């Protein structure tokens, strides 16, 4: 005689399991709506990036001129070059984030379009029109922030660390019939290691780790020192000509 619990577990006649409805990510759905079926026009994405670059250049220029003017007017006692260098340092640190995609979605025929939300809005990269693949790696928390820097022939840039995208690119350029694509797309040595198209030596991995560790810090520091010196020079010329 079966127990009551066993009878409950048996499928009851006339009852069917409810079909499982695939869950759709609302954020990806919204991103797809903004991108549209054919993606964001490349000229729009390039124009947005250019305007943001001009805005950042204007911000750096204001960081040089405004502290010097305030110092000459007596509002600031000193420190104009330090303020100018600090503004340039912050802008340089944020430059890679302009092309970084926080979330991507694949669409179009065979998923050839990659749309992502960036600091300048949604932009779309056409994988069939890729011109260059580079790799950007910087110290993160924890480990490394490891991203591929994609550039298509329209001039659209996108940084992404999406694993599915990396796997698809590795399969595409690692296939035996990918010689034509590999000839048209310039893949850096660092990116080829990320895609598994080449095996780095221990010496190269050590040297590259040192470069990836120092470069994201040295470039902003150099920019800060250069702009800080420009601020000091501007103030000195003002005093000499005044």
From TrEMBL:
Keywords: Membrane, Transmembrane, Transmembrane helix. It comes from the Bacteria. Residues 1-23 are annotated as: Disordered. It comes from Kitasatospora nipponensis. The chain crosses the membrane at residues 51-70, 82-98, 213-241. This is PH (Pleckstrin Homology) domain-containing protein. Residues 1-13 have a biased composition (Basic residues).
């Amino acid at each position: 005689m079966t127990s009551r619990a066993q009878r409950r577990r048996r499928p009851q006649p006339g009852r069917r399991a409810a079909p499982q409805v695939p869950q759709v990510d609302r954020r990806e759905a919204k991103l797809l709506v903004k991108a549209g079926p054919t993606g964001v026009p490349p000229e729009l994405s390039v124009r947005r990036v250019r305007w943001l670059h001009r805005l950042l250049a204007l911000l750096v220029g204001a960081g040089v001129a405004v502290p010097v003017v305030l110092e000459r007017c007596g509002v600031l006692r000193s420190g104009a070059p330090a303020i100018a260098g600090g503004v340039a340092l912050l802008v340089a640190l944020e430059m890679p984030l302009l092309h970084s995609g926080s979330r991507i979605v694949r669409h179009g025929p065979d998923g050839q379009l990659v749309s992502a939300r960036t600091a300048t809005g949604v932009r779309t990269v056409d994988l069939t029109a890729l011109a260059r693949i580079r790799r950007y790696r910087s110290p993160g928390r924890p480990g490394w922030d490891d991203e591929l820097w994609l550039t298509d022939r329209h001039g659209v840039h996108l940084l992404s660390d999406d694993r599915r995208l990396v796997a698809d690119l590795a399969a595409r350029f690692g296939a035996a019939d990918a010689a034509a694509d590999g000839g048209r797309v310039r893949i850096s040595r660092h990116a080829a290691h990320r895609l598994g198209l080449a095996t780095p030596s221990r010496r190269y991995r050590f040297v590259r780790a040192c470069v990836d560790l120092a470069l994201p810090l040295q470039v902003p520091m150099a920019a800060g020192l250069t702009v800080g010196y420009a601020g000091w020079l501007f103030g000195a010329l003002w005093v000499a000509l005044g």
